[in-house]
Amino acid sequence: MSAQSGALPVEVTSYVGRAKEAAQARRLLKPGRLLTFTGAGGVGKTRLAIRVAADAGRRSQDDVVFVRLAELRDAELLAGTVAEALGLRDQSGRAPVDVVVGHLRNRRMLLFLDNCEHLVGGCARFVEAVLAGCPEVSVLVTSRQSIGVDGEQVLPVPPLDVPVPEQVRSADELARYDSARLFADRARSLVSSFAITEDNFADLARLCRLLEGLPLAIELAAVRLRSLSLPQVAERLADRLALLTGGSRVAPERQQTLRATLEWSYELCSESERLMWAWVSVFSGAFDLAAAEQVCGGAGIDPDAVLGLIDGLLDKSVLIREEQGHEVRYRMLETLREYGLDRLAEAGDRLRAGRLHRDWYAGVAERFPAGRIGLDQVAMMVALRHDYPNIRVALDFCFTEPGEAATGVRMVAAIVDFWSFTGLFTELRVWMDRALDVLPEQAPERATALRIKGWTALFQGDGEVVAEAFTAAAELLERRPDDVESAYVASGWAVAAVFSGRPAAAIAPSGGAMAGFRAHGVIRGELVAAIAHGIAVGLIEDYQRGREVLSETISRCVRDGELQWRAWAQCCLAFLDMKAVRDAELADRIGTEALRNAHLVGTLEVQAFTTEVLASVAGYRGDHPRAAKLLGVADRGWTTMGSAPAAYVPLSELREEYAASTRQALGDAAFEAAFAEGRALNPDVALRYALGEVEPAAAPAGVLTARQTEIAELVAAGLTSREIAERLVISPRTAETHVDHILTKLGFRTRAQIAAWVAGRAR
């Protein structure tokens, strides 16, 4: 199985059994809002939960969001990981859990948190907050234990049913057992002629009994049919279990069975494959061949042999093959990874493997700036996103192992733009706080960590932290001068001044930062400082000169194939054209280019900022319906980031001016209806509309049935579903279903949007 962030994993093998448990889960999920699947590792909790979640989504038409937590090791990052799966950018200074709760407060959704047992405390606190603040959100959890939240319904996931070998008299009788059918299904994928027959049913019944119905154990055992007969598989596993259940072994029999299957799979590997299994377990999530060759090649394995060993582990179902774009990557199931880590620790290699793993991903970070300004920029960002679970592990190593924190800060500094692309600002602050807790006072990297923390707080609107961090960094730089770090701090002060509506205070530090970066050939820094300088000069001293600075910056970006800062510079130039001289033609042309580039690189803040500028263009031209719709489109973007135009004072001033004139021209009801329509647009349609490529069709008057129109009008009048039910003599559930269908047909999320739509039709 594989999944994009937020999407349910795609099942790549057939699903067998669990009809009873699935039906029970559906019954529990209907009245309840928190359902936890519990069970041992390898029992099939995730596969069952995926089935139940997919079915629930189809039945209710609610969104289902999947969040994989097995690769996360720090509970402090849990809420931010959920926010990322929801497509949110934690742009504000609010706690990530508050961003998530705010986003979900009026939404109907099933939130699926997979593999929570190692984060059970943090998961419980997060789920409590979501359930308390989001009345229409249900939560599905898989964990080896319950999370202990009030209202939690726990559904233990048992092993698949298994036969008593002596009581099975035929192949047909055995085929009624899910464990036997799963083994046969997996066996056929390896040996196409395999079937449950009168000749083999007795051996298969015995094997299923030995494996105790554990799906992971069954799948691992089925792999052995490539080299062994069914009787041989059963015989060898019987010997293994007899050995393990003797003496002082106190683990539950089911856990012994899984352990036995893992140990048997381990021992059936060659010596080199066993070593490879242990060493690749240091990777989190997916990894590529080059990473494996570098990290595992330091374990006494010939780097040239790594591909063959990976192929062997794939053949034995220890590794899973995934394709990401045109690249093949490998992943290990968490249960197998834990087993491998245990073997790594037993060999005394855990620290050495962790350092080699960190060294590889530090190298990935170091290579990033060399290609950062260039035509492969977007591809590099995509590659970093694929590597991010492993970058997290590498950073955790740096900020946990004594003496390694400086390397971690240098890694972050090299790829700091990644957090801007992905919007993981709060997580970046967590890493810098951890770094500052362990870095020696005399370490030069302290200034870098403080500077990055200040920049992060700047984009989250946390002025107090901005001032504290930049001031502390400047004090350190006075004692240990570093021209580049000083330029970064100066440009940070300049951007802070522009954001807070004090452009005059930005001119000197941004000019000094430009000169400092230029002297040391730091292109990225020079671009950032030039953007701040150009907008400050244009707003206060000389519009034409400010425009020249921004235009020169754009030209340089075009020449170098840089997209992210080109989009920012174009956005700021369009804003300057509208704010300073009301040149709507220039602002429209440049703003449209900015929006296209921002979409290519995925910078949501530039998209929201630019859409606000384009809304002011529409308002200036008198196209008030378009202005109101664009304000709605922008508002959805700000909400996604957990931010608002108020964080950018000059933009906020422009917005207030044109929002007020647009509202006055349209009237409150029509303004709210157009705003709601823009906010409800599908993101792709919203982008095309903002670019002037499409005109979103307004919902026609006949799109609702007569009954739905009647209910929409009652919603607009402020009635609850229960009150609507009483008025129309229907059940509350029927009323709620009608409201859900209205929301779906109109493409809305909230009752307020329905009310605005009704008011707009009435005009």
Q: Provide mean pLDDT, rounded.
A: 86
Give a count of the beta strands, DSSP E runs of length 2 or more: 7
Sheet with the most strands? 5 strands, parallel
Task: Strand order, main sheet: write it out.
Answer: 2-3-4-1-5
SSE-based structural type: mainly alpha
Percent range of helical residues: 55-70%
Number of helices: 37
How far from one another are the termini? 52 Å
Low-confidence stretches: 246-251, 698-702
Based on CA atoms alone, the radius of gyration comes out at 29 Å
Strand content: under 5%
Shape: globular
Walk me through this protein's architecture.
With 763 residues, the chain is mainly alpha-helical. The protein is built from 37 helices and seven strands. The protein has a five-stranded parallel β-sheet with strand order 2-3-4-1-5, with helices on both faces. Strands 6-7 form a two-stranded antiparallel sheet. Helix 9 packs parallel to helix 11 and helix 25 (523-540) runs antiparallel to helix 26.
